[in-house]
Amino acid sequence: MSHLHTGRRRRLGGLQALFLVPFVVVGTLTGCGDPPSTLVQIEANDAMMAEAIVQGKATLGDFWAVHANPTKGESDFAVKVAIAEGDRKEYFWLVDPKRQGKRVSAAIGNEPEIVKHVTLGQVIEFDESEIVDWMFMREKKMHGNHTARALLKRMSPEQAEAVQRLLAED
């Protein structure tokens, strides 16, 4: 269960903000009307997204290894978690993660659109097991972000090309 904390608002760099693709699980929004158009809608049983989450969880140790000792050119570390509000669930990128044992704290990195009890920049604390994806930049190439990779086929050709240019070949 995530715990909420107040914290400073953090601004994301333009490059990072462009690729922090939030998504919402449609199966959890039954009867709630249409989600905002800025979110990518994913069915609750989506096989490609499920595989991306498996990859994100399986490679989380790689993320923490780089995060613990970043070299020149490695920056913009973020993790993705789901935050629920009633029967609604929205996935958020959380920036500036700090790990202590199996607990992690980080700041909400994108504007909430479905879940309204958190705000951009708010620091939350959660179990490491809640992380479904991760990312960081190395020499202007994005590493990780398995969920965005899974969404490439659903993006417009222009969007997909722009994202693909920045993704590292992990």
Short description:
The chain is α+β, with helices and mostly antiparallel strands.
Give the strand order, joined by hyphens, for the main sheet. Answer: 1-7-6-5-4-8-9
β-strand amount: 25-35%
Q: List low-confidence stretches.
A: 1-20, 23-38
Instruction: Write down the overall geometry.
Output: globular
Structure classification: alpha+beta
How large, in whole angstroms, is the Cα Rg? 15 Å
* Overall pLDDT: 79
State the helical fraction: 25-40%
Distance between the termini: 30 Å
Number of structural domains: 1
Count of DSSP helices? Answer: 5
What's the number of extended β-strand segments?
9
Largest sheet features: 7 strands, antiparallel
Order of helices and strands: EHEEHHEEEEEEHH
Question: Could you explain the architecture of this structure?
Answer:
With 170 residues, the protein is of the alpha+beta class. The chain has one domain (3-166). Helix content is 25%, strand content 34%. The chain has 5 helices and 9 strands; from the N terminus they run E-H-E-E-H-H-E-E-E-E-E-E-H-H. The strands form 2 sheets. Strands 1-7-6-5-4-8-9 form a 7-stranded antiparallel beta sheet. A two-stranded parallel sheet has the order 2-3. It starts with a strand and ends with a helix. Mean pLDDT is 79; it is low at 1-20 and 23-38.
Furnish the topology, listing elements before pairings.
Elements (H helix, E strand, L loop, with lengths): L2 E3 L8 H6 L3 E3 L14 E3 L4 H12 L1 H9 L5 E12 L2 E13 L2 E6 L14 E5 L3 E8 L2 E4 L1 H6 L5 H10 L4
Parallel strand pairs: 2-3
Antiparallel strand pairs: 1-7, 4-5, 4-8, 5-6, 6-7, 8-9
